[in-house]
């Protein structure tokens, strides 16, 4: 490089040296702050990027899974690879470090095991677990991944996503897996579960991950309202065999209500600490 060219390249340090990379990152950031998928024209207009460039960059990102194209709506949203980035951030400790004392306090108050999870594609990954004394070990150990649609933590986060985003993640029955033979197996069944979660603000799971265990979870939202994580409590429920009774049903409902309130308080505390909602 001759001196004049070198001077031109370094004279303005704020000017992007790789325009395509700069535009790609701006598009990803823009999509991350939207409540749902948007049209390419909206991206081009809001970011002042030529529409043809936006289409080329979106196509390249879609090929790598960072965005998805909802053809019927002619809109673009974040893809599963973008969620992997969020999981990578979580694995680098900031969220886990902030959440660990909150989850430990939740386990103490609930007298049951508690954990913190993040979304990675169609899975949840557990980044903090606190087992209560004299409680059995769970499959939700740190680093373990489970299908999001089967877990309370996953359902809490999925319910906080735009409906179009959920549809992109679970387009058909092939996207669903099972562990115990229970849980949603079709998009319509998942939509019904998430509708109830949005109504109550609490996600539940009963034997879909491990037979005989139940969980409740509440989403932790970041500053943009996006699901950054979910806090959950898991306990050993009725293992089966006994006929349910009215008093038993009432006791179970009261238990769920109490643990849900504790999980909601912990989720709100963590949201405040990460500057979220």
Automatic annotation (TrEMBL):
Residue ranges of domain HTH iclR-type in the record: 18-80
Span of domain IclR-ED: 81-276
Protein name per the record: DNA-binding IclR family transcriptional regulator
A Gene Ontology biological process term: negative regulation of DNA-templated transcription
Source organism (scientific name): Microbacterium marinum
Gene3D superfamilies reported for this sequence: 3.30.450.40, Winged helix-like DNA-binding domain superfamily/Winged helix DNA-binding domain
Pfam families: HTH_IclR, IclR_C
The keyword Nucleotidyltransferase is assigned to this record: no
UniProt xrefs under InterPro entries: GAF-like_dom_sf (IPR029016), HTH_MetabolicPath_Reg (IPR050707), Tscrpt_reg_IclR_C (IPR014757), Tscrpt_reg_IclR_N (IPR005471), WH-like_DNA-bd_sf (IPR036388), WH_DNA-bd_sf (IPR036390)
PROSITE patterns: HTH_ICLR, ICLR_ED
Record's keyword terms, sorted: DNA-binding, Transcription, Transcription regulation
GO molecular function: DNA binding; DNA-binding transcription factor activity
